[in-house]
Design brief:
The protein has about 550 residues and is an alpha+beta fold. It folds into three domains: about 1-260, Rhopdopsin 7-helix transmembrane proteins (Up-down Bundle), CATH 1.20.1070; about 265-330, no CATH class; about 390-545, 2-Layer Sandwich (Heat Shock Protein 90), CATH 3.30.565. It has 18 helices and 14 strands. Helix 2 runs antiparallel to helix 3, helix 5 runs parallel beside helix 8 and helix 16 (about 435-450) packs parallel to helix 17.
Length: about 550
């Protein structure tokens, strides 16, 4: 297969060289023929050369995979076509001394000045990643080329490029300083491009063949120089320069210095995959050395959907232009992984059952722990009242209706506190702040039961919004302790709850006269450090101030 490809390539090159030489032959004989045949041969020669370049241009489009490299080398091919077109206009369609002929001559230098920097930019792009542009600063290399072109096109004004002389209807010229600058520019940039292309190549095997494009360039440049010195009419400088450029680029592409689509068949054959390419009739045209033999019937089935050749080999197909590409995929490793996954899934399912059971236990334990915390806290704040309630009920004399009534009424006060305080504690576990209405309801329920004991009660509440739950409990605890203070005393009670200066105030006033029970007051102040007890004109005031944000 590879040998056949090489033979085809050699034949193509031989045909191209034949037509190139044929064009040279036509140019060699055209000056010796009559006017008609002279023009015919010249046009045939130029048509052949232009056609060869166009064919080469389309081959570049097909072979250049990367967009950036394709752009640069297509630009070179277009400039070469421009060169040959200008050469045809100059020699066949204009007079040798007219202005158009002279500017066609100047136009030779457009491709000569532009192609070298274009080649340099192309070689700079070789090492870049696919479709990644080179640094825009490199495009400044066109500025010297444009300056030289400007000087060339304005040569009639200053004659710094060519010293023109019109004598006896014939144009002669001498090269001036700018011409040698342009020539030096062209040669230096071309050599730099060639060297850079070699160094940018990442494939060492291709670098070892770098002598091929170097030798091609030197041979073509030498032949061009000889043809110019000897003045062989078969080829002029434009054709020779174009030939040198094309052969140098083409040789670089063939050995791999310039990335292209070359040798894909070779790479396909030596690939590690079991694959092959067929035509529409499922006849194998290309295959890798690892490919296995498969009959057409299986190929037809696989072209519609993947099939299993055995438990570990799967045959896949994809439609391409002119046929199909088939690939054998080894799925043994996937099968092993799937087996392990099944085992793992079974273990995971078992573990999930255990985890679910464990989570249920944890959830139950969490609920139980929370309940214990609530019960513990309720017990902490109500144990004394419960003890007091037990003692109170135990001390009731059922034979004394008055004693029974009074103690049962006060028992209701204690029960109301225990109920309301327990509710506040449970709210504390759900929210940090509650509406002040909860404090109002708690105090009012206790006052209602005090009222049943014959104590005149009144509540003045002036707080809007939410209050810290801990503050609600703290204020209600203070209120309850003060209520016990008034148990055996026929008093009137007025409760004030209000906010002032970012604080919550509770003031309990009663017309009870203070007794000698100083221990109670000490215990009250110890439990509520900010508590203040005052007696003024027979009225006792119990006041407490706490920050609004909470205790």
């Amino acid at each position: 297969m590879q040998t056949a490809m090489n033979k085809n390539r050699i034949i193509v090159y031989a045909i191209c060289i034949f037509f190139f030489l044929l064009a040279g032959f036509f140019q060699l004989i055209d000056s010796k023929l009559p006017e008609f045949f002279h023009v015919l041969c010249a046009l045939l020669a130029h048509s052949i050369l232009i056609t060869l370049v166009v064919i080469w241009l389309f081959s570049l489009i097909q072979r250049m995979v990367r967009k950036d490299l394709r752009f640069f080398f297509i630009s070179v091919a277009i400039l070469i076509l421009f060169f040959l077109t200008v050469r045809m206009i100059k020699y066949d369609l204009t007079e040798s001394i007219d202005t158009l002929n002279r500017y066609m001559w100047y136009s030779y230098y457009v491709p000569q000045m532009i192609i070298p920097p274009t080649l340099l930019l192309a070689t700079l792009s070789i090492e870049n990643e696919k479709d990644k542009s080179i640094n825009k600063t490199w495009y400044l290399i066109y500025i010297p080329a444009l300056i030289l072109l400007l000087l060339i096109y304005t040569n009639d004004l200053h004659q710094l490029v060519f010293k023109l002389n019109f004598e006896r209807g014939k144009l002669t010229y001498r090269h001036q300083i700018v011409f040698y600058l342009a020539l030096a520019w062209e040669i230096i940039i071309t050599i730099i491009s060639l060297i850079n292309m070699i160094f940018k190549c990442r494939v060492s095997a291709c670098k070892k063949k770098a002598w091929i494009p170097i030798s091609t360039f030197l041979i073509c440049a030498t032949l061009s120089t000889l043809f110019f010195i000897i003045n062989i009419s078969s080829f002029k400088i434009p054709e020779l320069l174009c030939f040198t450029c094309v052969m140098t680029i083409e040789s670089s592409i063939r050995i791999g210095l310039i990335p292209s689509n070359n040798n894909y068949q070779k790479y396909f054959y030596h690939s590690k995959y079991s694959a092959f390419i067929t035509d529409e009739a499922f006849n194998i045209k290309y295959k890798s050395k690892e490919a296995i033999s498969i009959n057409k019937e299986l190929l037809q089935i696989a072209s519609k959907s993947p099939i299993m050749l055995n438990e570990n080999i799967r045959l896949l197909a994809e439609k391409i232009h002119g046929g199909y590409v088939f690939r054998c995929e080894d799925v043994s490793s996937i099968n092993k992984i799937n087996d392990k996954l099944e085992e793992t899934n079974e273990r995971i399912l078992e573990e999930n059952d255990l985890i679910e059971a464990e989570n249920e236990i944890k959830e139950q334990k969490s609920k139980l722990d929370e309940q214990i915390k609530i019960y513990t806290k309720i017990d902490k704040y109500t144990s004394n009242e419960l003890k007091y309630l037990d003692e109170l009920l135990s001390s009731i004399n059922i034979n004394n209706s008055e004693d029974y009534k009074k103690k049962m009424q006060f028992a209701c006060v204690l029960v109301a506190y225990i109920k309301r305080r327990s509710n506040i504690i449970m709210l504390e576990f759900k929210n940090s702040y509650i509406d002040g209405e909860e404090l109002v309801l708690s105090i009012r329920e206790s006052l209602d039961y005090l009222y049943l004991m014959g104590i005149e009660c009144s509540l003045d509440f002036n707080i809007n919004g939410e209050i810290s739950v801990k503050s609600v409990g703290y204020i209600y605890d203070f209120f309850e302790k003060c209520v016990i203070r008034f148990y055996d005393l026929p008093v009137a009670i007025l409760v004030h709850v209000f906010e002032s200066n970012q604080c919550i105030h509770i003031v309990i006033e009663s017309d009870v006269k203070l007794t000698n029970d100083q221990d109670f007051d000490k215990r009250l102040v110890k439990s509520f450090p900010s508590c203040v007890i005052k007696n003024n004109d027979g009225v006792t005031y119990y006041s407490l101030v706490i920050p609004y944000e909470g205790v």
